[in-house]
Each structure stands twice: as structure tokens, then as C-alpha cells.
Design goal:
single chain, Ubiquitin Conjugating Enzyme, elongated
């Protein structure tokens, strides 16, 4: 059968089951996965927020939705845990090229998909922001972006908060009011047209002493880093992520 005529057949389900077994047995770092034996299309995992990011120690539940014509079309990714991130909408939809224009129906794995989603927490791409407020802050005021992202992490992704109904989330609104941060409501706003242009450069020195201190990556420099690089394809994205992961 030609791949263009695939639907979710028993063969695809077998592949999904095999990969889920492998993922449960040997997941990527910071990913916790358990098979839903009663529904193989219910694919969810917990991602532990990577170190040296505003999401550190948070536990984020992520879901992959498999379309009926999989693997011709990619799955859709969603964060079920509320998060403040440029590439994750307020409804949890994930924007990453691996699940969109760079999807390869002949070469894919669930392990890689969750790895890419985890790496998105390390290296956001505000040029293609779904959350315009987060994208704008990321580019223009990383410290403020980090504060809000940490508040979201503490409120929504902290497993120690057993009685979540008692969490005072007004702290977020108060923080925004005190810092004159307004949610962007203009439909035609575009992060690419922000005042700080993205330079067309594909080089980045990870050994620059301005970005390191006792071998610990300084995340407050991330805004300036992103303003001086442009990542437009999956090869660049993968390279940056791999180098970044070696730093933390």
C-alpha cells in the first residue's frame, strides 16, 4: 500500500503500540510516559521542566492527537498543563515545525516528538509565536518573561500544590499590573514586525564568556541571543537544541 493511502489501520496501531512500549521503557530525559492500554490513541506524557529554564522542576502534561489519516498528516500536540511560552497558545496548542511543515510521514517516532517538545521549553522560537504576549516579552524583556513563566510554572505545574483550588492565581494579574504588562489583543499583531529585528545570521558562539558563568548557562541572556540568530529550518533547530542541551 502506498503511504499516501494510509489511514489508521491495524498495522499503524501495531507500530504505535510498539513505539509506546519502547517509550515507556526508555523515554528521553525529563519525559515520563505510561501506555493507556485501553486506548492506544490516547498518547500522553509528563515533561519535567528542564534545568536553567523558567519551567525548571515543573511537571507539564502533554498530549499527542493522532489524525485519522496518520502518518500522512502529523499529530497535533497540546499542553494540558497551562504554561506561558511563545510557541504554546493559551489553549495549549503547540507550534513546532516537526509537527507541521517538517513532518516526514516515513520517518517519525513518538520518542523524537516528545524530545522536540521538551527542547522547545529550552529553545523557544518567538518568531512564530502563538502566544503573542509571551513572544513579545521574550524578545524585548526576557527577565519579565521569565518571571511570568516561573509564576505559571509554580501555580499550574507544581505537584506540591495538592489543593490547586486554593492557589491564589491573582498573583499573576498583580504582577502584570505592577509592571505595566498588557495582553496583546490586536488580531493583526505580528511578533516578526516587532521593533527588534531578527538578524539573518546562523552562527552562535556558545563559548562566549558573556553567556557563561562557572559553566552555568545564563538564561537572562536568552533574549539577546535570539535577537542575533535566525532559525528557519529543522536542521538549524536541531543543531541549536543539541548544543544547548550539552550546556545544562
Amino acid at each position: 500500500m502506498d503511504i499516501d493511502s494510509f489511514t489508521i489501520t491495524s498495522n499503524i496501531l501495531k507500530i504505535l503500540y510498539k513505539q509506546q512500549c519502547e517509550l515507556e521503557k526508555s523515554p528521553p530525559d525529563c519525559v515520563i510516559f505510561h501506555i493507556n492500554q485501553s486506548n492506544l490513541l490516547d498518547i500522553q506524557a509528563d515533561i519535567i521542566g528542564p534545568k536553567a529554564t523558567p519551567y525548571e522542576n515543573g511537571i507539564f502534561k502533554v498530549k499527542l492527537e493522532i489524525p485519522f489519516n496518520f502518518p500522512i498528516n502529523p499529530p497535533k500536540g497540546f499542553f494540558l498543563t497551562k504554561i506561558f511560552h511563545p510557541n504554546i497558545s493559551e489553549k495549549g496548542e503547540i507550534c513546532v515545525n516537526t509537527l507541521k511543515k517538517d513532518w516526514n510521514p516515513k520517518e517519525w517516532s513518538l520518542s523524537n516528538l516528545f524530545e522536540v517538545i521538551k527542547c522547545l521549553l529550552i529553545v523557544p522560537f518567538p518568531e512564530s509565536a502563538l502566544n503573542e504576549e509571551a513572544g513579545k516579552l521574550f524578545m524585548e524583556d526576557y527577565n519579565e518573561y521569565s518571571k511570568i513563566a516561573k509564576l505559571y510554572t509554580n501555580i499550574y505545574a507544581n505537584n506540591n500544590n495538592n489543593n490547586k483550588e486554593n492557589i491564589n492565581i491573582s498573583e499573576l494579574d498583580e504582577h502584570k499590573r505592577n509592571n505595566n504588562i498588557n495582553i496583546l489583543n490586536e488580531k493583526n499583531s505580528n511578533i516578526i514586525n516587532s521593533k527588534t529585528p531578527v538578524k539573518q545570521s546562523r552562527t552562535f558562539n556558545f563559548n562566549n564568556e558573556n553567556f557563561t558563568d562557572q559553566n552555568i548557562f545564563q538564561m537572562n541572556n536568552i533574549g539577546s541571543i535570539r535577537r542575533n540568530i535566525n532559525i528557519s529550518d529543522s536542521k538549524d533547530q536541531k543543531e541549536i537544541m543539541e548544543k544547548w542541551l550539552k550546556r545544562i
